[in-house]
Write a structure and sequence with these properties.
The protein is of the alpha+beta class. It has a domain of 64 residues: Rec A Protein, domain 2. The protein is built from two helices and three strands. It has a three-stranded antiparallel β-sheet, covered by helices on one side. A hairpin with a 4-residue loop joins strand 1 and strand 2. Helix 1 packs parallel to helix 2.
Length: 96
């Protein structure tokens, strides 16, 4: 069992983290989308965990100004090279 996995019980934790980071959060489209904004940069996702992930991309890039595809990293292209088995490691919950 992983130390943390995606499930809806993580949503509130993601919202608290977003609030602590200073983002204003609201729902849009009859509650189907969740949005956040800070300093004029706005984001939209299907759930709070996705929203936190998108904001992590923004925070990693720290763009000075908006431009098309400001978030994109093309190299190295890693998606198809993700291994289909886990590396050897000792999960934190098994450590003594």
């Amino acid at each position: 069992m992983p130390a943390l996995g995606y499930y809806t019980n993580v949503h509130n934790t993601a919202l608290v983290i977003l609030q602590r980071k200073g983002y204003r959060v609201w729902t849009e489209q009859a509650g189907d989308r969740i949005c956040a904004e800070k300093s004029g940069w706005d984001f939209m996702a299907d759930d709070p965990v996705q929203l936190l992930g998108l904001i992590s991309i923004y925070e990693a890039h720290q763009p000075a100004a908006h431009r098309e595809y400001w978030w994109k990293i093309d190299e190295p292209w890693l998606y198809e090279s993700i291994p289909d088995t886990a590396p050897d490691y000792v999960p934190v919950w098994k450590r003594k």
